From TrEMBL:
Residue ranges of every copy of the Alpha/beta hydrolase fold-3 domain listed in the record: 99-370
Compositional bias per record (Basic and acidic residues), positions renumbered to this chain: 421-434, 452-461
InterPro entries documented for this protein: AB_hydrolase_3, AB_hydrolase_fold, GDXG_lipolytic_enzyme
Superkingdom: Eukaryota
Keywords linked to the UniProt accession: Hydrolase
Species annotation: Cryoendolithus antarcticus
Spans annotated as Disordered: 419-461
Name of the protein in its database record: Alpha/beta hydrolase fold-3 domain-containing protein
GO molecular-function term, one example from the UniProt record: hydrolase activity
Pfam family for this entry, one: Abhydrolase_3
Protein's UniProt keywords contain DNA-binding: no
Length: 461
C-alpha cells in the first residue's frame, strides 16, 4: 500500500529549488536531465518491476537543516493486526530489525525505486523494516551533502537526542501501520458498511524499531555511503573530525552489504581500468570530457576527492572502521570499479580485519547487474542476481543471530564464482587484461587514476 507521509512542499521551497537549477550552466542542465529521466518513473511501476512486494511508502524525514526534509522510501514486512474489539494496538510482529539502503548512480543519478526489488527481498526474508534513503545529489548538491543526509537518517534511527528526526521516523512508520490496518479493515467490510462509514478507525499503533539489529547496504555510489556509515574520519582538508553515526560503543555486530562500491573518487570514470571484454569507449577530443566525467566532477572537486568521506577506501582500517562492522563485499568483474574493490579487500586483510570481511567475486558480471530490471538480464544473470540477494539475506541473518557469518559462509562455499556457476575459477584468470604489480589505493596518484533492551525504543502514535 504505497503512500506518503510528510509536509507538502511550499511555494517558497519550490521557488528556491527552481532558482538553484537556474544557476547551473546549460550543458550541465542538459546532461543531468538526460541521466535523470529514469527518476520520472512513477512508484506504481514497482508493481511490475517488484511484483512480490512489499511496495514502499514515502516518509519525509526532517534533516539537520530547518525546513528541509530527506525523502525515505520505507518497506514494511507482512504483519497481522489484532481485531479492533480486542483493544490491542500492537501488530504481529510488533518489533522490527532495520536495514538502511542507499541507491547507486555516481552521486548524480539513480533513485530509490531501482533498489526496490533488493529492498523488498530483504524486507520479506529478514522481516525487517527497510529504509531506502533518497539523498541529495549533484549537480545541485555537492559533497558532502549526500553523506550528511545518510548521517541524518542513521541518527534518526539510533540517537534519541537527535530531535529533528528520531521521533519523526518512528511516528511516520507507526502512522503508516495504522493507515494500513484501516485499509485491511475496509477490505474486510461489506459494501454497506463502507458506504455508511461504519468501518472503525483502529487505535494508535505501537511498534518498536529494534536497534540491536541494524544493517546498511548500497550498490556502487550507494556502497560508498554504506561504508561511510561505518567509518570514523579524522579532521582533514578543512573538515573537522567526523565520527561514524554509529556510536563507537555500539555493542552489536553491524552488517555492511557493499555491492560493487565506488571507494576512490579520486578517479574519474574514464580514468579507471577497463576489462578488455567491456565495450570500447570512443576516444574523446582533447579537452572534451565524457558525460560521466563531467557529472562526476559536479559532485566533488578533484581537491576534495581524497577526503575520507568522499573516498572511504583510503581510510585506515585498523583505527577508522567501526569495531562492530561485518562486511559482505560483492565484486563484478566486467566493471571499472573492480580494481578499487580488490585493492580494498587486500587493505582490509593486511590491516587486521580480514576475519570481518567476506568477498564474493562474479568474474563475468557487469556493473549494476543486481539492480537492472530482470527483463534486461540473461538467464544466468538472473540466477546470479538472485544468488547475491540470497547471500545478502544469509549474511545479515547470521550476523544478527550472533554467528560468525564470514566464517560460516567461507566454510560453505568458495570465494570465487564464475558466471556459469560450474567450476570455481580464479578471479585473476578472469582479468586477462591485468599484469604486473598489485594495486594499492593508498599509493596511487589521484591525478593519474581515480541484554539488548537498552537500544530498543518503542513508540505509540
Amino acid at each position: 500500500m504505497p503512500g506518503s507521509h510528510g509536509p507538502r512542499p511550499t511555494m517558497e521551497s519550490i521557488r528556491h529549488h527552481v532558482s538553484r537549477w537556474s544557476q547551473q550552466d546549460l550543458s550541465t542542465l542538459a546532461k543531468t536531465a538526460l541521466v535523470r529521466l529514469p527518476r520520472a518513473v512513477p512508484m506504481d511501476a514497482l508493481r511490475i518491476t517488484s511484483r512480490e512486494g512489499p511496495q514502499p511508502f514515502r516518509l519525509d524525514l526532517p534533516s539537520r537543516q530547518a525546513g528541509r526534509t530527506i525523502p525515505l522510501y520505507v518497506f514494511i514486512p507482512p504483519t497481522t493486526f489484532p481485531s479492533p474489539e480486542s483493544g490491542e494496538s500492537t501488530p504481529d510482529p510488533g518489533s522490527f530489525p532495520v536495514v538502511m539502503d542507499y541507491h547507486g548512480g555516481g552521486f548524480y543519478l539513480g533513485s530509490c525505486l531501482e533498489q526496490a526489488p533488493f529492498c523488498a527481498r530483504l524486507c520479506r526474508e529478514l522481516k525487517a523494516v527497510v529504509i531506502s534513503v533518497d539523498y541529495r545529489m549533484a549537480p545541485l548538491d555537492k559533497f558532502p551533502a549526500a553523506i550528511e543526509d545518510a548521517d541524518d537518517a542513521v541518527r534518526a534511527l539510533l540517537d534519541p537526542t537527535y530531535t529533528p528526526g528520531y521521533q519523526a521516523l518512528r511516528e511516520g512508520i507507526a502512522e503508516f501501520f495504522r493507515a494500513h490496518w484501516f485499509a485491511v479493515l475496509q477490505a474486510k467490510a461489506t459494501k454497506d458498511e463502507r458506504r455508511a462509514n461504519r468501518v472503525p478507525m483502529p487505535p494508535p499503533v505501537s511498534i518498536t524499531l529494534d536497534t540491536t539489529k541494524i544493517a546498511f547496504s548500497g550498490a556502487s555510489s550507494g556502497g560508498n555511503i554504506a561504508l561511510n556509515v561505518g567509518m570514523h574520519v579524522p579532521a582533514d582538508l578543512g573538515f573537522p573530525d567526523w565520527p561514524s553515526p554509529i556510536p563507537r560503543d555500539y555493542p552489536h555486530p553491524v552488517p555492511l552489504l557493499l555491492l560493487y562500491p565506488a571507494l576512490d573518487l579520486r578517479q574519474l570514470p574514464s580514468e579507471r581500468t577497463r576489462h578488455e571484454r567491456m565495450p570500447v569507449v570512443k576516444p574523446r577530443k582533447p579537452g572534451k570530457q565524457s558525460l560521466d566525467d563531467h557529472l562526476a566532477s559536479t559532485y566533488v572537486s578533484r581537491e576534495l576527492a581524497a577526503h575520507g568521506r568522499a573516498s572511504p577506501g583510503l581510510l585506515d582500517i585498523s583505527t577508522q572502521l567501526h569495531p562492530s562492522a561485518k562486511i559482505l563485499l560483492i565484486l563484478s568483474g566486467l566493471d571499472t570499479l573492480w580494481e578499487q574493490s580488490e585493492a580494498w579487500d587486500a587493505k582490509v586483510r593486511s590491516e587486521g580485519r580480514g576475519a570481518d570481511l567476506k568477498t564474493m567475486r562474479y568474474a563475468d558480471r557487469k556493473h549494476g547487474w543486481t539492480t537492472i530490471p530482470e527483463v534486461a538480464l540473461s538467464k544466468e544473470e538472473r540466477r546470479t542476481r538472485l544468488e547475491v540477494l540470497d547471500e545478502c539475506v544469509k549474511f545479515t541473518s547470521l550476523t544478527w543471530a550472533g554467528r560468525d557469518a564470514v566464517r560460516v559462509m567461507e566454510r560453505e562455499d568458495g570465494d570465487v564464482v564464475n558466471a556459469q556457476g560450474k567450476e570455481k575459477v580464479s578471479f585473476e584468470k578472469a582479468r586477462v587484461d591485468q599484469e604486473g604489480d598489485e594495486v594499492s589505493l593508498d599509493s596511487r596518484d589521484g591525478d593519474e587514476q581515480e541484554g539488548r533492551d537498552e537500544n530498543v525504543h518503542p513508540v505509540t502514535v
